[in-house]
Amino acid sequence: MILDTISTINDFLWTYIVISMLVGCAVYFTWNLRCVQLTHLGEMVRNLLRPDASGNPDAGGGKKVSSFQAFAVSLSSRVGTGNLAGVASAIFVGGPGAVFWMWVMALLGASTAFMEAVLAQLFKRRGTDSFYGGPAYYMQHGLGKKWMGMLFAAFIIFGFGLANQIVQSNTLCDAIGEAFGVRTSYTAWLLTAMTLAIIFGGIQRIARFSAMVVPFMALGYLVLAVIILTSNIDKVGDMLSLIVGNAFGWQQAAGGGVGMAVMQGVKRGLFSNEAGEGSAPNAAATATTSHPVRQGLLQSLGVFTDTLLICTCTAFIILLSGIYTEADGIVLTARAMTHHLGSIGGWYLTAAIFLFAYSTIIANYFYGETNIRFICDRPWAILLFRLFSGAVVLLGGYMTLQQAWCIVDLAMALMTILNLIAVLMLSKYGFRLLQDYKRQRREGKDPTFRKDLFPDADIEAWD
After folding, report:
1. Phi and psi angles of residue 316, each rounded to the nearest 5 degrees, phi first
2. What is the pLDDT of residue 382?
3. What is the pLDDT of residues 269-317, one digit of tens each?
C-alpha cells in the first residue's frame, strides 16, 4: 500500500511538475548563457587537461582536491547502473523513442549542470583538508534561507544516502548472482565491506579512487560499444530511424506512445546524468580552481560524457540486438550483451556493473556526508552516517528492484524541485560569472575570480 501511494505521488510530480521545470530551466539557461554547453566545448577539454585538473593529489596544494578529481567524483556518480539498467528500463517501458528524449535533455540540461556547479563553487566553504559545498550551502549563503538548505540536505541524504544506494547494490548483487550463481546476500556483505574501506578514508581517498577508476571504466565500455556498432554497421540506419520515429509517434514500439517515451527518457536521463538534481554540485564544490566557471564547464562535459556517450552505448547495444521487448532492467542489457558477444558478453557486463555500481556507491556516500556536515558537523554524526551507509548497501541485496526504483523516483523529484527553485533565484550570479570569464579570455588572460565582483554576497572561500 505504501509503495502504491508513493507511486501515485511520483506520477503526479513527474507528469505535472518535474518535467516542466527541467525543460523550462534547461531552455532558459541555454538561452541566457548563449548555449555555453555547445559553444565552449573546446574550453571544456582545455580545462580538463589543465595542470590543476590533472588528477595529481597535490594539484590543489597539500590535500586539496583537483578539478579533475572533483570531475571524476561527479562522473562516478553519474556513470552507474543508470547507464546500464536505467537505459534498458527506459527503452522497455517507453520504447526506443525514450533514447531520443534522453539526448534532448542532455543537450539542454548541460546548461543547468553548468549553472548549479558554478553556484556551488561560488558559495563553497573552506574545510580542514578541502572545500565543501553544494545546493544546501548556496541556499543558505546565497539565498539566506537555511531552512531551505536543511530541507534539501534531508532530501539528498534520503535520496543518495538511502534510495540510490539500494538501486546500485541491488543491481550489482543481481548481476553477479545471474552470472556466477552467487547468493545475493554473500555479494551484499562483500560489497558493504569494500564500501566501508573506502568511505572511512574521507574525501581524499574517494577522490583518488574516482580519478583512477572512472576514466578506465568509461573508456573500456566505449571501446566495447564501438566494436559492437562496427560489427552491426548495416543495421545502424534502421536503428536511428526507429529511435526518431518512436520519439514522435511515427512508429509505435513496446511501451506505447510519445508521452511514455518522453517521460521515461527524461526520468531515466535525470537518474543517469543528474543535471538539475542537485547532486553533482556537491562534488563540484570540492575542487581547487581559479574560477567557478572552469568547474561549471567540466560539469557540463560530465553530462555529455554520461548521456551522449555511455547511455548511448547501452541503448545502441540493446536496440541492435533486436530483443528490447523481452526483458527489463539489467537483465535486458545482459541478454543484449550475450546476443552480440556470446558468453563473454555476460562476463564483461558483470565486470562493468561492478565498476559502475561500486564507484557510484562511493560517490553517493560522499554526497550524503557533505549534507550530513551541513546539518550536524560533528565526528559522531559522520561516524554514524558511515555505518548507516554500510547497512543500506547491505540492505540492497535483500530488496527488489521495483521497490528501490519507486523510492529513488520520489527522492529525485523532491531534490530536483527544490534545487531548481534555488538555482533560478541565484542565476544572476552565474550569468555574471560567465561574462567575467569570457571577458578575461578575450583579454588574453587566464581567468581568475575575485570576490569583489560580488561585494555583498556571502563568499568565504575566495579570499
Report:
1. -65, -40
2. 86
3. 665 667 788 888 988 888 888 899 998 998 898 888 888 888 888 889 8
Q: Check residue 131 and report its DSSP letter.
A: E
Nearest Cα to Cα of residue 324 among 404, 389, 393, 235: 235
pTM to 2 decimals?
0.82
Q: Is 253 helix (H, G, I), strand (E, B) or coil?
A: strand
178's grid cell? 545471474
SS3 content of the chain, % helix, strand, coil (to 5): 80, 0, 20
Q: Distance between CA 23 and CA 35 in Å, rounded?
A: 15
What does the block give as the cell for 108?
539542454
φ and ψ at residue 342, rounded to 5 degrees: 75, -155
Nearest 5°: the CA angle 117, 203, 47 is: 40
- Spell out, as residue ranges, where the chain has pLDDT lower than 70: 50-66, 70, 72-82, 129, 178-179, 202-214, 249-273, 328, 399-402
Per the CB < 8 A criterion, the answer to whether 160 and 279 are in contact is yes
Show contacts of 149-152: CB within 8 Å, 24+ apart: 149/374, 150/374, 150/375, 151/418, 152/278, 152/371, 152/415, 152/418, 152/419, 152/422
